[in-house]
Structure formats: C-alpha cells, structure tokens
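wait is this the right file?? whatever heres the structure
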C-alpha cells in the first residue's frame, strides 16, 4: 500500500452501489472523514485520489474542524485538533489542492504540537 502524505484527499467508489462515497483526508496514516464545510475551506475543488483499497487504511474520527494558517514568515500550515502540519512547498499545495486564499493569519501556531511536514 502506498504511503499518503497528511492532507491527501482520497475517495472510493461504493462497491455495492457503484457511487462515489465519502471524501476522506489522510492524517498521520489514518483516513478521516471530513465534513463538507471544512472540506470546502481547505481545498479548491472536490478532486481527490480514487483508491480501490481505501478501506484497507485505518479509519479515524471525522474531522469537523480544520483550516490553513500562515505564520509570520508566510509559511502555511494545515491545522486540525491542535496539531499543525507544515506545508513545505508550492508543489505540495498544487498536488493536494489546498486553497491558500482561505488561510488564516494571526493564529498562535507556536503553542501547537507539530505533525509531520506535508511535502
């Protein structure tokens, strides 16, 4: 199984109905369902990686609060549940489809735990 970076959007087709199912975001090796309102804040569109083996990735709890934030030097982070994930390159932004126009400023990022970089 491929190792997907935190922030990767994934989806799968429902094997019974053939319809596209929930959208998930990979966070620290776990697929986490994500609420539409949060999804629309983070990403430019609904495009995601379609995975046949999505259900082989352990499922975590739903992400109902996540956002992008810029620190004082302009570095952008994905923030969820008190953990920040540094987005290390524009290539990562483009590949994963983050919508940097929604990034917050003035957040206290120093007090948050740090997860693995998104690259």
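ok assuming it is, sequence goes like this
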């Amino acid at each position: 199984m491929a190792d997907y970076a935190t922030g990767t959007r994934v989806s799968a087709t429902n094997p019974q109905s053939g319809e596209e199912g929930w959208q998930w975001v990979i966070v620290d090796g776990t697929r986490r369902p994500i609420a539409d309102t949060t999804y629309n804040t983070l990403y430019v569109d609904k495009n995601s990686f379609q995975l046949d083996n999505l259900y082989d990735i352990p499922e975590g709890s739903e992400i109902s609060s996540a956002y992008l934030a810029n620190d004082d030097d302009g570095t952008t982070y994905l923030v969820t549940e008190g953990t920040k994930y540094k987005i290390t390159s524009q290539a990562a932004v483009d590949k994963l489809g983050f919508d940097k126009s929604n990034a917050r400023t003035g957040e206290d990022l120093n007090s948050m735990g740090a997860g693995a970089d998104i690259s």
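Residues 50 and 65 are 23 Å apart (CA to CA). so i think its the right one actually
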